[in-house]
Specification:
This protein is mainly alpha-helical and 149 residues long. It is built from five helices and no strands.
């Protein structure tokens, strides 16, 4: 239950990846998909990464390979998103969507399982108390490009 707020945000991340894939399949303009990606990055992913990197991992060993993998994958996703400003292309968006899917599956199945086994009940409670009460993602994006027209 203590990691549930992060898991709920992971659901939003999986939905984001699905929407990008649907947008590509629907031939949505790359400009729209990149705008949506930047919006999602600012309003969801960036604060979510901060929560994982500052709140969750402060209780985990920094030299743990799962923690290192999380940091490396976060950096890779940041780089992919930044690259869209320079070279917006469908392949980069497809790669980002697939990478997000795989990353979330890794965190849910491996990193969070490790945290739940490693952290004490008190530490898990502290993680929970430091996480924001509400999901970072809101529903202000109005263009439902992922729906078939």
């Amino acid at each position: 239950k203590e990691l549930a707020p992060l898991s709920r945000e992971h659901h939003d991340g999986l939905l984001f990846a699905w929407k990008i894939k649907q947008g590509l399949a629907n031939k949505t303009s790359i400009a729209t998909l990149c705008s949506y990606t930047r919006w999602f990055w600012t309003n969801h992913m960036k604060p979510h990464f901060k929560d994982e990197e500052k709140v969750l991992v402060k209780f985990l060993p920094g030299d743990n390979p799962l923690v290192s993998q999380m940091f490396n994958e976060h950096a890779h996703m940041r780089d992919l998103i930044i690259s869209l400003d320079k070279e917006p292309e469908p392949n980069s968006l497809q790669l980002l969507a697939e990478y997000i899917n795989n990353h979330i599956r890794f965190e849910e199945r491996e990193l969070f399982a490790y945290a739940e086994q490693t952290l004490t009940p008190e530490q898990l409670k502290e993680v929970y108390e430091e996480l924001p009460e509400n999901s970072h993602c809101d529903t202000e994006w109005k263009d439902e490009f992922w729906l078939k027209k």
